[in-house]
């Protein structure tokens, strides 16, 4: 019973992948990588400035909020 459900699931996945063209699939991957690295580059200076100076912490917080909203 489980094997049948798994086979049906893989068939559905293969049909979905066939419907999506290769360029759209690559575009989705590239956009997800872009946002992943964007989050890393937002967090790193945030932590660095927090460890260095407490006064800049507020400005970096506002900067990160603006970057996330836009």
From TrEMBL:
Highest taxon above the source species: Bacteria
Regions that span the bilayer: 25-48
Keyword terms: Membrane, Transmembrane, Transmembrane helix
Protein name in the entry: Uncharacterized protein
Species of the source: Bacillus luti
């Amino acid at each position: 019973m489980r094997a049948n459900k798994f086979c049906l699931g893989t068939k559905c996945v293969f049909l979905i992948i066939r419907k999506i063209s290769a360029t759209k699939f690559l575009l989705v991957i590239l956009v997800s990588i872009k946002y992943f690295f964007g989050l890393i580059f937002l967090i790193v200076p945030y932590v660095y400035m927090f460890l260095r100076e407490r006064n800049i912490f507020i400005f970096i917080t506002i900067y990160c909020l603006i970057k996330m909203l836009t």
